[in-house]
Write a structure and sequence with these properties.
Blueprint (H helix, E strand, L loop, with lengths): L1 H40 L9 H32 L6 H33 L3 H15 L4 H7 L4 H9 L1
Length: 164
């Protein structure tokens, strides 16, 4: 009976890890699609309207992007630190995923803001901010190693994660 429970637990762990990676990929694909839509609807020539708006966004978009990068990491670390270390492994994976999703959503919001600023001002400079945010998003990619390190898993739990 114990072996059957262990196999069920291992398949559940594998499933939870797969769900986390699927959510990560889905958010990234959504951001890429929105970037593609922005390029499709943008005029070929830059229009001369909205200079005031462009001046405002020139300061706000990069600052917001940087602020979100730091804030998302701070929120993630705070959430991870608040989780109890006495729960079962599947719950730890689910809590890890929850913290990651919140962090990813913050970065996605900054990307969307920069892309909307691009559409409103026809200034492709804001796409540079999006590219930097994409780079940061790649650094937030879920992995077995980050799960083990961030959730401070013990050696038995680490072994289970690495085997799945």
């Amino acid at each position: 009976m114990f072996e059957a429970e262990r196999m069920l637990n291992n398949s559940e762990i594998t499933n939870q890890l797969r769900i986390t990676k699927t959510i990560y990929s889905s958010i990234f694909i959504g951001m890429l699609l929105f970037l593609a839509v922005v390029f499709l609807i943008m005029p070929v020539n830059k229009t001369e309207g909205g200079n005031d708006l462009d001046n405002i966004f020139t300061v706000i978009v990069p600052l917001f992007g940087l602020m979100i990068m730091f804030t998302s990491r701070m929120v993630y670390n705070k959430m991870i630190a608040s989780y109890s270390t006495e729960t079962d492994l599947v719950k730890k994976i689910m809590r890890y995923r929850t913290a990651k999703i919140i962090s990813w959503a913050m970065v996605e919001a900054a990307c969307l803001f920069a892309l909307i600023a691009t559409v409103l001002t026809s200034n492709y400079l804001y796409v540079v901010v999006v590219i930097f945010l994409f780079g940061y998003y790649f650094m937030l990619k879920p992995s077995r190693e980050s799960l083990i390190c961030d959730m401070r898993l013990n050696s038995e739990e680490s072994e289970i994660i690495l085997k799945n």
